[in-house]
Write a structure and sequence with these properties.
Low-confidence stretches: none
Number of domains: 2
Structural class: alpha+beta
CATH class of the largest domain: Mainly Alpha
Radius of gyration: 24 Å
CATH superfamily of the largest domain: Hypothetical protein, domain 2
Number of helices: 14
Shape: globular
CATH topology of the largest domain: Endonuclease III, domain 1
CATH architecture of the largest domain: Orthogonal Bundle
Strand content: 15-25%
Largest sheet: 7 strands, mixed
Helix content: 40-55%
Number of strands: 7
Bound molecules: iron/sulfur cluster
């Protein structure tokens, strides 16, 4: 039985860079060295797939072409450009970071690691990616794809702190002095296109001769898959009408969907009555007495590790004065103006339902 020698971190770049030269995808953020645009792309790419990011990235950098443009824009406007991409804390942090840069150094993205990593929302990964790609500095950028490649090449199955530290040490040592930005992109690209979470394509992988997990025939089970349990729940939503307008409310700036606008809604207890729960929420949270009308539609959406079955109802106001308690603001708007507001993706789907209901 043949034995393979233990891989060394510095063995990776000489195999990876030629592979990347032939296999790199043509992506819009790869046509620039502008650190701001690379930063925007890296933030958008966190927890989101490349194909999904492309149209959002193009729209965002068109709307806010520089740090100064983003810093000058109201947060509402920024969230509107981000709406549908999810994980809105990323947009809030990026906006806050650009505002901080205007105050500090006239809107220039810092080329200094400790200065950059001190900005809101910037962690080791973002700083490493931006500084290596835009400035050619030698920093690792270990996203989930890159970590998976390292876990497999060095056969680190566990998720313990010690295992993660070993991967980080190897990741740091592996960054070459020349072309560190391309190397980081190559590693992520390999993790995305070849060394996928399931069914890695070891037979075409440029690291196959090094890879311990491949040689041991266990690539599929490294790193050990995390157990996540999806919780199912029910929710109800009201499209509350008064004269020809409908009610929307803005969520507080922090937390899930922070700063976005939504239709009044409530999560239901097991066997909870949607009409009673919606009446209660509209009275307590908005100061309104309403009559809940017919069901307008249903949809299911996911958020974090939850699947939510949502039923949408029409509602009309019987009395009261609109006074939001938990929300930042509430507005009665013409349904035609809904696209001027940043709505979370499921609420945007409901907005389409509202316009279909009106035109139907
Ligand atoms: S050989 Fe297989 S498991 Fe190893 S890095 Fe390549 S694709 Fe991943």
């Amino acid at each position: 039985m043949s034995r393979i020698r233990s891989p060394e971190p510095q063995d990776i770049a000489p195999r990876l860079l030629p592979w990347f030269s032939c296999n790199r995808r043509d992506l819009p953020w790869r046509h620039t060295r502008d650190p701001y645009r690379i930063w925007v792309a890296e933030v958008m790419l966190q927890q989101t797939q490349v194909e999904r990011v492309i149209p959002f990235y193009q729209r965002f950098v068109k709307g806010f072409p520089t740090v100064a443009d983003l810093a000058a824009a109201p947060l509402d406007e920024v969230l509107r450009h981000w709406a549908g991409l999810g994980y809105y804390a990323r947009a809030r942090s990026l906006h806050a970071a650009c505002r901080a840069l205007i105050g500090r150094n006239g809107g220039t993205v810092p080329g200094d690691y400790s200065e950059f990593v001190a900005l809101p929302g910037v962690g080791a990964y973002t700083a490493g990616a931006v500084l290596s790609i835009a400035f050619g500095q030698r920093h690792p950028a270990l996203d989930a794809n890159a970590r998976r490649v390292f876990a497999r090449v060095f056969h680190r199955r566990g998720e313990s702190l010690a295992a993660r530290r070993r991967i980080e040490r190897a990741g740091k040592a592996a960054v070459p002095v020349k072309r560190p930005g391309e190397y980081n992109q190559a590693l992520m690209e390999l993790g995305s296109l070849v060394c996928a979470p399931r069914e890695p394509k070891c037979d075409v992988c440029c690291l196959a001769d090094l890879c311990r997990a491949c040689h041991l025939g266990v690539a599929d089970s490294v790193p050990r898959p995390r157990r996540t349990r999806t919780r199912r729940s029910r929710a109800a939503m009201a499209i509350v009408r008064r004269r020809r307008r409908i009610l929307i409310a803005q969520r507080p700036p922090e937390g899930v969907w922070g700063g976005l606008w939504e239709f009044p809604n409530v999560e239901l207890a097991d066997n909870g009555d949607p009409s009673a729960a919606l009446r209660c929420v509209l009275r307590q949270e908005f100061g309104l007495d309403v009559e809940i009308g017919p069901e307008l539609g249903r949809l299911t959406y996911g958020i974090m590790n939850r699947r939510i079955d949502l039923t949408v109802y029409g509602a009309s106001v019987l009395g009261g004065r609109t006074r939001p308690r938990w929300h930042e603001a509430a507005r009665w708007i013409c349904p035609d103006h809904l696209n001027g507001y940043a709505l979370p993706a499921p609420h945007a789907r409901v907005a389409k339902l509202v316009s279909r209901t009106r035109s139907g």
